[in-house]
Amino acid sequence: MVRWFGAVQAQEVPGATWALARRVSTRICESDVLAALDAGDIIRTHVLRPTWHVVAPEDLRWLLALTGPRVRASQAARYTELGLDAATFSKAEQVFARALGDVPHLTRHALGDQLGRAGIATEGQRLPHLLMHAELSGLICSGPRQGRHFTYVLVDQRVAPAATRSREDALAALMTRYFTSHGPATAHDAAWWSGLTIRDVREGVGLSGDALIAHRIDGVPHWSGAGDGTEYGARDGRTRPNAPVVHLLSNFDEYTVAYRDRRPLLHAGAEPSTLAQSALLSQPVMIDGRHGGRWRRTIPARATAPVSVEVHLLDAPAPAIQRALEAEVERYAGFLARPVGLLIV
User: Fold this and answer.
1) Which residue, 57, 22, 52, is CA-closest to 36?
2) What is the mean pLDDT of the chain?
3) Alpha helices, H only, 208-309
4) In this structure, what DSSP letter does residue 131 have?
5) CB 202 within 8 A of CB 187
6) Which of 160, 288, 291, 341 minimizes the number of CB atoms within 10 Å of its CB?
7) Which phi-psi region, left, alpha or beta, contains residue 147 (left: φ > 0; alpha: ψ -120 to 50)?
8) Quick one: pLDDT band at residue 229, thresholds 50, 70, 90?
């Protein structure tokens, strides 16, 4: 599934594990996803925009070669503010390489201590940006958790070597993956998601050949995967489910964050404002594909106590919607492998 998407946004681990599991199988639990991360079956690192994403190991090197320079360039002003220059990055990455050559994996705090011993200041946001730069350079990536904390490992110790991919091949591959997994979408959507330029996106679409199909929706060019079996021009012929479909999405779920224009996902009565579109990124409740409210969870310290899921809906729920919401909460309980109580506000 991660390979099919190309990359899945994952800066908040609890939400990212739910986003991954719910797309694979109702039998997948949070512990299964965390085990896959620990084993390196999927890799969490900075690769697009910039923020953390989960990627398939075999995709990491070519994705970084394609998008890493763009992401680093986007951070140039911030690097200057933090007093980070090429010499500092080079020295820090030498420290990381040496430390992780001696110990297979280290936490962020431990790597910060190593930098401090080498005379590199890590206060404020310097340490996160030093680590992110090393990730974008393909030196380090996520390692197995140590307690509740992720560690870092050397990419060369975590990811098998791979043949270098040409820029054109990488562009075509990324655009094919994006439009197949997120389509129909626009060039501006793809540019936002990938961090590439509009020119890059259009070049990638052109290089994708027959892998993508072009559509005009409301007069705007869109693309989707050629093999998804959906005719977007024949909306009247679609089969709709007999019952409402309710999803509790995590923060920055691909269903919402992967598009620059999120107006089609808004509640029917919402104004298409920037604020309304931003609300879609914060644990939205989606009802039949559109924004229906928000939710939050509270996990008690006692492991046997029920998790509380509090749902704030924009409209009073019809009985069928309430049943669908209860079924979704049951699925979430299975994911957590512990009881969950639902409170509708």
Assistant:
1) 57
2) 93
3) 254-257, 274-279
4) H
5) yes
6) 160
7) left
8) low
- Helices 126-136 and 57-74: angle between axes, nearest 10 degrees: 130
Burial 144-176 (b: 16+ CB within 10 A, else e): bbeeeebbbbbbeebbeeeeebeeeebbbbbbb
Cβ(314)–Cβ(291) below 8 Å? yes
Matching residue, tokens 């970084």 = 64
Nearest to 209 by CA among 175, 166, 258: 175
With CA atoms as reference, report the closest residue to 151 among 110, 93, 92, 95: 110
In which element (H, E) is residue 93 found? helix 86-102
DSSP code for 146 = B
For the residues 297-305, what does the mean pLDDT come to? Answer: 90
Look at the block and give the residue holding tokens 């957590």: 336
Amino acid at 313: L
The backbone torsions φ and ψ at residue 235, rounded to the nearest 5 degrees and listed phi first, read -65, -35
The set of residues, in sequence order, having a beta carbon less than 8 Å from that of 139 and lying 6+ positions away, is: 93, 96, 97, 154, 155
Show Cβ contacts of residue 332 under 8 Å, excluding neighbours closer than 6 positions.
Answer: 18, 248, 309, 340
**Of 30, 72, 65, 70, whose CA–CA distance to 159 is shortest?**
65
Distance CA 277, CA 247 (A): 17
State mean pLDDT over 27-46: 96
* C-alpha–C-alpha distance, residues 201 and 189, integer Å: 10
